[in-house]
Amino acid sequence: MGNLLGSDNNIQKPKLIMTGLDNAGKTTILYQQKPDKIENLIPRIGFLVEQFKSKQFEIFAWDVGRADRCVYIHIPKDSNYDGLIYVDYADKERMEYAICELQKLLIIDEIKDLPLLLLINKKDPCQVNIQEIALQFSLEKLCKNWHIQPCSALTGDGVKDGLKWMQKQIK
Ligand code: G3D
């Protein structure tokens, strides 16, 4: 893993997709990683994919739901992704919507076999019942390799642990 985690810009970094509903905390999480570089990709038809480069990862991020069908068309197809991070905060009112959007992602060829890190943001770890969340998202059925990590993007709690899990899967 040494090279993957190195800060040399010439070294190819693992490519991750980070998505989830708007307001889930994706931007806060990404800025907390102190990215070296942030670029807006494909700012077409009101839909935005942002590319974040940090020491560890290259992350492509967008809101699911907002652009609906367009999202699948705009995923950079020439990229080989190494993992999917789905950010949610288990808000009762939007839970069904968040689950439905993840399910739509997990049938896309480029995405369906990627390790999935489900970050349950805006939470103290002790507030989160991991088994209940796994059941609600049907992760056992939908995904081969998944991990649920409660976190707080504001304090950073849990975020590193989640990313460490992801690194191990890519190894
Ligand atoms: P997004 O990029 O997924 O759309 P953002 O989400 O990162 O923009 O976050 C949306 C709002 O949630 C922001 O508040 C942000 O500060 C807040 N937020 C993100 N992470 C946490 C967290 O862990 N705990 C709490 N309490 N709030 C969080 P504003 O007010 O700026 O819209």
Automatic annotation (TrEMBL):
CDD domains: Arf_Arl. Keywords: GTP-binding, Magnesium, Metal-binding, Nucleotide-binding. Pfam families: Arf (PF00025). The keyword GTP-binding applies. GTP binds at G20, L21, D22, N23, A24, G25, K26, T27, N121, K122, K123, D124. GO terms for molecular function: GTP binding; GTPase activity; metal ion binding. Belongs to the small GTPase superfamily. Arf family. This is ADP-ribosylation factor. The lineage of its organism: Eukaryota, Sar, Alveolata, Ciliophora, Intramacronucleata.
